[in-house]
Amino acid sequence: MTFDQAQLRELEVSIGDRLYIQVASWHLYLRDAGIAKNLAIECVANLEQGASVAARKGLESVQVQLGGGSARLPLARLIPSGQIFDLEDILDPYCR
User: Fold this and answer.
1) Which residues contact 83 (CB under 8 A, 6 or more apart)?
2) What number of other Cβ atoms are within 10 A of residue 92's Cβ?
3) Could you report the per-residue pLDDT of 6-57, keeping only the tens digit for each?
4) Less CB within 10 Å around the terminal CB: N or C of the chain?
């Protein structure tokens, strides 16, 4: 599957507006954290395997720096579990 820059940007915006990192009761949307584009790129790389696989691989691949870079965690560890299904919903139309 070939993605052009406009499609990648559209996916980035969809991800950034809907997904967030949760810390305590705070929600930091991925657009504000500057992570949406990286997640979009990682997901696109795995779209031929389906939305579920692309979502999970993307979330595991994107590393989030904490404490000024002294620690890194996969994005999958920082988002609520329900957000995985939201990401699958976002990716599903691109898998067809």
Assistant:
1) 19, 20
2) 15
3) 999 999 999 999 999 999 999 999 999 999 999 999 999 999 999 999 999 9
4) C
